[in-house]
Design brief:
The structure is a homodimer. The first copy, chain A, has about 270 residues and is an alpha/beta fold. In chain A, about 30% of the residues lie in helices and about 25% in strands. The radius of gyration of chain A is 17 Å and the shape is globular. At the A-B interface, helix 5 and helix 6 of A face helix 5 and helix 6 of B.
């Protein structure tokens, strides 16, 4: 389809997964009623993010685990695709991954990505880093990619998705209020330099001592901010158009890259 | 030194190299009088940028050619280092390079860089692409790197300089008025994502049919805009401080890169 009707759910973490799923169910209904075909939720959407290594270990599941099945049921009930974050089982004895998954409106799991760039002590205490670069997947005529939070602060993973042909990069995140420069400075650049849409769905509110900054943002392929939330819970609706990608790509720098000079970047 | 007193000369192209050198001489005097130790000029500073392949061929010179000697004399006369752009001789029969050079206050040539990312038909008609990634050089206690114009729109060359330890990236440029998003969107991101200063000295005014956009910009390592020119000729004075680099680097993402996953970026 030429237009992707996207919803970003900027929300505080719920007290427990049952409550989180109930809120997701209500939000998916609301997003669909407003015309959205795809709903993006924050990092570790249903469990909370800073839940400690014991909490992560207790709630981690395989990509087709109970949370995934509950999300699939919600997606099917309301006829909307859902991107959400969750702690994914790793090998026995290894810390789980900080993963994001896309489940379509017919309940199919079509993409799973494990955060590759871990952020500080919080991530390192709770998670293992993903061992695969992000991969583009096709959905409804769009080429999509998933990243998680800190990943988008690096030019490299978004570049990798753009080189695979991504139209839009969807980023569940839990960015603290002290780091607004990610939304203000980095997201427009990732979109512009790669001629892609970037959709960044942030948490808001408190989790323990931490305040999340909201300001969930959708940037277009010219670096413009197409939508941005405030500090509080909000459902952002944005229509992404292939028609905006085409002229931006007429002047795409991707074809002018000097791959012969970039080897030092991977050493 | 802890502080680098930098001047950016945002200027229109002069009618001819003699006039360009006279203006540079006056500007270097003024910059030094205002305390600057290093003056950065636009791309192809002394010859004009869109001078055609014949014009480039006629004015091209080796890195120690007559223009370089004249710039060295100006640098020594006023006691100020100068970064300027010029067309550099290539092998016989090959188009010249679009180069930038740094000449210190004692007249020494300490760095020369050949633009690696050529922009559209203008660059391709006039120049050969540089065949070496940019390299950091030391100057007065600072680690500096040179890029030219379009190079900074790519994350890769700035990243390469940051990985070599660059403190500041100096960018002679000739960016047209239609492309203000480079200054607005990309420069702050390059500075923030690499924890470096970025100083972008643009042309202004008319050259044939082309209007250059000015808005010469210095960004700090938190992505802040420390100085920005308007649309007309201007000498920007900015003090860069090592003291701003240190706290920014305490949270540098450079140490969290996943080089094991970046090989596809150089293929």
């Amino acid at each position: 389809m030429d237009t992707l009707n996207l919803a970003l759910w900027q929300c505080p973490y719920a007290p427990g997964t049952a409550e989180a799923l109930a809120r997701l169910d209500a939000t998916a209904a609301r997003a669909r009623a407003q015309g959205a075909a795809l709903l993006v939720c924050p990092e570790m959407s249903l469990t909370g993010y800073q839940i400690g290594s014991d909490g992560v270990a207790a709630l981690a599941e395989p990509a087709d685990g109970p949370l995934a099945q509950a999300v699939a049921a919600i997606a099917q009930r309301h006829g909307i695709a859902i991107v959400y974050g969750y702690p994914e089982h790793n090998a026995p004895g290894e810390k789980p991954y900080n993963a994001a998954q896309c489940i379509t409106a017919d309940g199919q799991r079509v993409a799973n990505y494990r955060k590759t760039h871990l952020f500080g002590d919080i991530d390192r205490a709770q998670f293992s880093p993903g061992d695969a670069a992000p991969a583009v997947f096709a959905w409804n005529g769009w080429q999509l990619g998933l990243l998680v939070c800190y990943d988008i602060e690096f030019p490299e993973p978004a570049r990798g998705l753009a080189l695979q042909g991504a139209d839009a990069i969807l980023v569940p995140t839990a960015n603290m209020i002290a780091f607004d420069e990610v939304q203000r400075v980095l997201l427009p650049a990732r979109a512009l330099e790669n001629r892609v849409f970037v959709a960044y769905a942030n948490a808001c509110g408190q989790e323990g001592e931490t305040t999340y900054g909201g300001l969930s943002t959708v940037c277009g392929p010219t670096g413009s901010v197409q939508a941005q939330g405030g500090r509080n819970e909000e459902l952002l609706l944005v229509a992404l158009s292939h028609g905006d990608l085409r002229p931006a790509r007429d002047t795409s720098p991707l074809r002018d890259r000097r791959t012969d000079l970039y080897d030092p970047l991977s050493r």
